[in-house]
Each structure stands twice: as structure tokens, then as C-alpha cells.
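Review form for a predicted model. The reviewer records the input and the model, then writes brief findings.
Reviewer: anonymous (R2)
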Amino acid sequence: MSKKKETGRVQGMIQIGLLMLLGAFIGGAGSAVCFIFKDDIANILREAEKITGNYSDWGLMFLSLVLFILAPLLTFRAAGKMKQWDEDSEEETERLERSIQRYQSVLSILMIGEMCISGISIANLHTETRTVSMMSVTAILIYAVIVFWNLFFIGKLIKYDKKINPEKRGNFFSWNFNKEWLASCDEREKLRLFQAAYYTYLRTQFVYLAVFIGLLLLSNAVEGGVVPFLILMVIWVSQSLIYWYEYEKKK
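Model under review:
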């Protein structure tokens, strides 16, 4: 297997120079645009905040309805595939395992989005309008019920995964689940998990950088204060510290 050649010094310097020029262009042009159209941008952001606040409860209930239907639907679909599963076929076993893992990922991602929207609804509880507050209470109560509903069906999907891989260990409702599950994975699956985690770490660095640039540009148009930058700093630095700690611990 041939090794990939290392990027040369000159080529690396050129790439860094191009990135700096691109950053300068985005920063300069973006700042100018935000300064020129700062009133329009401020109005758009205020309107977006108003719409988000007014419709967050409906959005939360809509997502709750989606998960209420989707969780059992995906679980029953997985159960149907389990009944038709040919245990002697490695290819079919791998396809089934990937399908179940995708179902878990879909439900988990929707639950994260639902949790974030619930934060807006919780903030609405402090508004002066009683109608809005009662709507928020209703949406939050429905959300709380749906959380347990989804956890039940995710637990069922994990049981199917354990049936496919009897060596897998871990109680989904225990806080040691991830540790026990990882310990029971074979070397091939651990490699996949570690690679996914590493590339996730790399990609999120670009996400944080994009958010930082966006906040800088918007600061030319609206008074956002220091809180958004502090929140970004806590998230970004925390992830880097956790990665460093875990890397050192593995040595």
C-alpha cells in the first residue's frame, strides 16, 4: 500500500497564504456589507427572533408529533427486518445492523433539535402574556412525555442491535451504557467509532470558526454583547480540552 506524500513546504505556505487572503476578503467585505446594511440586518434579526419566540411552542409540538409517530414506525420496521433476517448471511447482517444504527441516529438528532426548541418555550414561560405562557407549559409537558416515549423505542432498537451482536453489553438506561457498549465492541467497530469521533472533532473546528466569523460580522450591525462569544468560547475550549484529556489518557 503506497503512502500518501506529505504536502511540501512551499505548497503549504501557498495554502496558508490563500487562506489568509480569503479570510481577509471575507472579513473586509463582510464587515462592509454588515455596516452598510446594518439597519436592515438588525430588523431581520429582530423579526426572526420574534417569529421564533411566537412559533417555538408550535414547532415543539410539531416535532413531538413527528417523533411520536416516527419512533414506533422505525422500531416496527426494524422488527420486521429482524424477522426476515438470515443469520448466516454476513452481508445481510451488516445491512441490518447499519439500518438499526441509522434509525437510532435519526431519533437522536430529532431529540436534540426538540430539546433546543424546548429551551425557547421555557424562556416563553417568563413572558407577560398568559396565553403564550400556557401554550409553553402545554408544549413543554408534551415534550417531557415524548422524551420517555422516544427513549423506550431507542431502547428497543438497541435490544435488536444486541440480538444481532450477542457480545454487546450495556444497559441503555444506565449512565455507564456508553462505556460498557464501547468495551464490548470488536476492534473493527472501535476503529470506526474512533475515526468518526476524530473526523467529527476536525469538522466542528470549522463550524466553530464559521460561527466566530459570523458573530464578528454581525457585531458590526447589532449590539450582541459578549455573551455569544463567551458561549462559543466555553463550547470550543471545552471540546478541545476533552479531546486533549482523552488523547493523553489513551497513551
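Findings: The CA atoms of residues 21 and 27 lie 10 Å apart.
Further findings: The chain is about 80% helix and 0% strand.
Recommendation: see findings above.
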